[in-house]
Write a structure and sequence with these properties.
The protein has about 280 residues and is mainly beta. It folds into 2 domains: about 100 residues, Trypsin-like serine proteases (Thrombin, subunit H, Beta Barrel); about 100 residues, Thrombin, subunit H. The chain has 3 helices and 17 strands. A hairpin with a 3-residue loop joins strand 15 and strand 16. It is globular.
């Protein structure tokens, strides 16, 4: 998994940010899916049912291109992802239930009016980089398909600094790979303070972001956008605290922090749109 790109220019924190969707080369298959291939940067292969909340998004843009993003299942009818993945698109199919990207156990085509992008999202700065997708029908839970909990709403939330966290996706394995992965991968890293992250990205990192260390080139990459960042909470077990947003323009494997949307900044928004919350 590699990160989005951000070039620090001078003066007023002017950054060139590249979001994580990756354009796909489409090949017609008998089942109508796309043939695509590649991986997460420096990660490990996920076991079957290890991340039952992991979602893949097969997206068609207004330019007629296909891109790939990640997401997470947060209830039996709602998927959480990055706003930059689903802005100005003509279609999206949600893939659920398999570590093999081309063999999902369930798929759903989401209507465009069921895509809810944060009303204050800005593509230029990636502020408020969060969106919700409403599935056309309720998902049947199983060992391979199950939602991830969110942090508790209306509760005090720690900054989650220096916490072991896990992020997963089908993104590129490195900066030179042209393709994304066929098998789900994950990395386990530690979260950073926002001050440490701002040392690299300046004011592009806000209080509504959270970052992880990527020393050794283990990181998110193109194709991982929207995917989950999860910690093990002392009371609730696994909870999602972030979703993949952006990273350094010089590449995924350079060791710069990976930046995520901080979910505790948006719990009320999620509840308002979807009715999903952890009380």
């Amino acid at each position: 998994m590699c990160k989005l790109q951000t070039l620090f220019v001078i003066g007023l924190f002017l950054y060139s940010v590249r979001a994580y969707p990756l354009d796909l080369t489409a090949t017609d298959l008998p089942n109508g899916q796309l043939q695509i291939s590649g991986r997460i940067s420096g990660g490990d292969l996920a076991a079957e049912n290890q991340f039952p909340y992991q979602v893949g998004l097969n997206i068609e843009t207004t330019q007629g291109k296909f891109t790939w993003c990640g997401g997470s299942l947060i209830s039996n009818q709602w998927v959480l992802t990055a706003a930059h993945c689903v802005e100005s698109i003509t279609g999206v199919i949600v893939y659920l239930g398999s570590v093999n990207r081309l063999q999902p156990k369930q798929t759903y085509r989401v209507a465009l009016n069921d895509i809810h992008i944060h009303e204050h999202f800005k593509m230029a700065s990636l502020i408020n980089d969060i969106a919700l997708l409403r599935l056309p029908s309720k998902v049947s839970y199983s060992d391979s398909i199950h939602p991830i909990k969110l942090p508790r709403i209306f509760a005090f939330h720690p900054e989650y600094e220096y916490r072991e966290a896990i992020t997963s996706g089908w993104g590129r394995e490195n900066d030179v790979s042209a393709n994304i992965a066929s098998h789900l991968k994950y990395v386990i890293r530690y979260t950073l303070t926002n001050a440490e992250c701002q040392f690299v990205y300046g004011n592009s990192v806000r209080s509504s972001n959270i970052c992880i260390d990527t020393t050794g080139g283990q990181s998110t990459c193109s194709g991982d956008s929207g995917g989950p960042l999860v910690i093990n909470d002392d009371f609730d077990g696994p909870i999602q605290i972030g979703l993949t947003s952006f990273g350094k323009s010089s590449g995924c494997t350079k060791g710069y922090p990976a930046v995520f949307t901080r979910l505790t900044s948006y719990l009320e928004w999620i509840y308002l749109i979807s009715g999903v919350a952890n009380f």
